[in-house]
């Protein structure tokens, strides 16, 4: 018998369902930190043919022991999905508060959120001793994660300000479809005829929400303000969706080799720099005059930070398929909040578009999930 150190030894799956070998970090260790007795490989009891077992796994054989080297430690079932729902709720409430703010540009709101994220993440970086730059081989990924993630945030906030809450949320929810396409390009994942079909469904949903005049005529109902602003918001939401999909791919590529606090740190720092430059160029920087708006800005920053942390953790401990399916709650929360607090009943075009987008995103997620499970079973065999 030898001692095997307890710890979480597996990272989140990368492209094709493979699990990259990443160094263990102290902060990702969710075990007790105490050694557990496990039989050493290659050591057989004389005259015994019984399977070797580890007491920490209720009798499972050593190659499948949750504490054995190179295997994944069992986590709380459904914890990643709970994180996803909680993240969706926090983001939805933050978007509702954004609709309530008056005379504050979306870029300035994004800057305030970045400031709050930096303030709350900084103590975590110091506590976990992660540094401020991250591993050398991962810095380029962290930079693009920060740039694309902050760009998605700014564009999404603009879309929320000029579009109905449900419309903007539904468009951004099509990100799993774009994630599949980008994963095919950059992570060499398979892109089949089903993925193409789901993409067409998502595009159909976006068209139903955008309702271009050349298809629906000039008399478009159920929008906020002029159609020009609605169209700008639609373009911003689509661009935000593509940026968010790129962020998903980068997070899956990096996995647990980088602490999630460090990932959010890059997001906040790069986002703040970009927001400050944009505000000076547009000459839009001004503090809100109303005390209510200042409170809402603070709450948006706090809720955005919480949503970002829970979403990042969900992607690190749960497979992308279940997370993408559970993110349908984004749309549900958006419709509920818009009806209850904004007194806006979504038109049938938006409902139809939402069904198309949710169907395409859920179909993409279920298909990818099944592929991952199938490949995992083949690897076990």
From TrEMBL:
Report the superkingdom from the record.
Eukaryota
For this UniProt record, give its keywords in alphabetical order, as a comma-separated list.
Cell membrane, Endoplasmic reticulum, Membrane, Repeat, Transmembrane, Transmembrane helix
This protein's GO cellular component annotations are:
endoplasmic reticulum membrane; plasma membrane
Q: Which Gene3D superfamilies does the annotation name?
A: 1.10.3730.20
Q: How does it sit in the membrane?
A: Multi-pass membrane protein
- Pfam families cross-referenced by the UniProt entry: EamA
Q: Which coarse location class applies to the principal site listed for this UniProt protein?
A: membrane
Instruction: Tell me the protein family, please.
Output: Belongs to the TMEM20 family.
Q: What does this protein do?
A: May play a role in intracellular calcium sensing and homeostasis. May act as a negative regulator of plasma membrane calcium-transporting ATPases preventing calcium efflux from the cell.
Q: What's the protein name?
A: Solute carrier family 35 member G1
Query: What is the native source organism of this protein?
Result: Melopsittacus undulatus (Budgerigar)
């Amino acid at each position: 018998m030898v001692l095997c150190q307890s710890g979480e030894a597996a990272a989140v799956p990368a492209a094709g369902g493979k699990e990259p070998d990443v160094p263990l970090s102290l902060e990702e260790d969710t075990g007790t930190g105490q050694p557990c007795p496990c039989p050493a490989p290659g050591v057989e009891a004389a005259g015994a043919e019984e399977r070797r077992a580890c007491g920490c796994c209720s009798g499972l054989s050593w190659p499948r022991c949750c504490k054995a080297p190179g295997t994944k430690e069992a986590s709380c079932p459904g914890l990643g999905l709970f994180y996803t729902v909680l993240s969706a709720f926090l983001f939805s409430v933050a978007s509702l508060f954004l609709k309530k703010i008056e005379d504050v540009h979306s870029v300035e709101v994004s800057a305030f959120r970045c400031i709050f994220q930096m303030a709350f993440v900084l103590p975590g970086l110091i506590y976990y001793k992660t540094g401020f730059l991250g591993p050398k081989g991962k810095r380029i990924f962290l930079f693009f994660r920060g740039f694309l993630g902050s760009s998605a945030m700014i564009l999404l906030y603009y879309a929320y300000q000029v579009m109905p809450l449900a419309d903007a949320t539904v468009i951004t929810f099509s990100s799993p479809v774009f994630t599949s396409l980008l994963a095919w390009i950059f992570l060499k994942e398979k892109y089949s005829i089903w993925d193409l079909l789901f993409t067409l469904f998502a595009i159909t949903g976006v068209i139903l929400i955008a309702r271009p005049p050349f298809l629906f005529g000039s008399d478009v109902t159920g929008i906020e303000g002029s159609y020009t602003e609605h169209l700008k918001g639609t373009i911003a939401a689509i661009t935000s969706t593509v940026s968010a999909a790129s962020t998903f791919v980068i997070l899956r590529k990096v996995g647990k080799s980088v602490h999630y606090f460090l990932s959010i740190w890059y997001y906040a720092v790069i986002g703040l720099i970009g927001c400050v430059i944009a505000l000076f160029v547009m000459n839009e920087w001004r503090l809100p005059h109303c005390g209510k708006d200042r409170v809402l800005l603070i709450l948006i920053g706090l809720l955005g930070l919480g949503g970002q942390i829970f979403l990042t953790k969900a992607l690190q401990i749960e497979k992308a398929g279940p997370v993408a399916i559970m993110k349908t709650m984004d749309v549900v929360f958006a419709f509920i909040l818009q009806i209850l607090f904004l007194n806006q009943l979504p038109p049938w075009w938006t409902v139809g578009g939402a069904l198309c987008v949710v169907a395409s995103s859920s179909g993409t997620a279920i298909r990818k999930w099944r592929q991952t499970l199938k490949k995992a079973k083949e690897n076990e065999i």
